DNA sequence: GTCTTGCCTGTTACAGTGTAACGATCGGCG
DNA sequence: CGCCGATCGTTACACTGTAACAGGCAAGAC
């Protein structure tokens, strides 16, 4: 992610090797990764990376909007949009291939805002995760 | 929940004591309960209920739409609506008092359906969880 | 240079979450 | 009675996440 690298320059000092490599691992994978999976990929023979370090790196990355946490999977994916941290994304999680697509819909945001205002609820963070079957996997099943 | 009791009759054999008591515990609490919290409340001196039994009861209850799982909290709340299992609910989770309010919005469902159709994604289950501050807690803060 | 400060990382330990596997129990049925 | 299916108890285990403390490293103050 070139965007991440660019944002990294702004944080210069803060974007350490561990955090950069954590982001790389998450970005290379096409599906959500658990913290322990990341730790395993970051580890080399004789150089083990503890899961707790990964968690701290992930905290940093999520705070700066470079990765997202998938609550229903306890896993992490790279952020594919340049949206601000306060904005809400919709995650489409495919049960067949495990891929996660991140989309943003102004329409959904509007209806959410409307419903929240009606309820007198002041939102801080939003989680919208849809499990199902992505278009590619639907096509694959029709063929087979 | 009288509704749950009524639905229980239909499942006659399936609605065992453990499952009923699990539902009671979840319904009595005004906030999401973890599986181990439930197990603790179900346990009596000399009669310990293991968490794994609670998980099985919760699986049953969620399948039949009597309780919901709050993915962002790893906790469970009673279902407050008679909606079908396929319908999507919106959970408003208050960070101050920990309460969870369940609402249904046709507007949100429409916009979600629209976005999903555009993406060619076939949804199976939907998770919409908003963290923030409920109306009651906002009023309380203004006073204090 | 040295000292202090603050941040990041390593390590250990531990609490919480969830599942697999096996055995026992109970009710219904031939 | 014996069989069968579902539920439940128990143990064991894997995964997820946090607390606490120690060491390293860069930057600024003296």
From TrEMBL, chains A, B:
GO terms for biological process: negative regulation of DNA-templated transcription; regulation of secondary metabolite biosynthetic process. Transmembrane segments: none annotated. Binds 1 zinc ion per subunit. Binds 1 Mn(2+) or Fe(2+) ion per subunit. Fe cation binds at residue 109. Its cofactor is Zn(2+); Mn(2+); Fe(2+). One of its GO terms (molecular function) is DNA-binding transcription factor activity. Belongs to the Fur family. This is Molybdate ABC transporter substrate-binding protein. It comes from Methylobacterium variabile.
């Amino acid at each position: 992610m070139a965007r991440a690298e660019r944002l990294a320059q702004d944080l210069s000092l803060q974007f350490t090797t561990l955090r950069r490599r954590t982001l790389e691992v998450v970005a290379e994978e096409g599906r959500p990764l658990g913290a322990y999976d990341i730790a395993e990929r970051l580890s080399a023979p004789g150089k083990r990376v503890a899961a707790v370090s990964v968690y701290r790196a992930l905290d940093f990355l999520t705070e700066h909007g470079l990765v997202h946490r998938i609550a229903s999977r306890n896993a992490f994916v790279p952020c594919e949009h340049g949206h601000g941290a306060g904005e809400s994304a919709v995650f489409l999680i495919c049960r067949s291939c495990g891929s996660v697509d991140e989309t943003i819909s102004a329409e959904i945001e509007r209806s959410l805002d409307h419903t929240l205002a009606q309820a007198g609820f002041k939102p801080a963070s939003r989680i919208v995760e849809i499990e199902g079957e992505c278009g590619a996997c639907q096509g694959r099943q029709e063929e087979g």
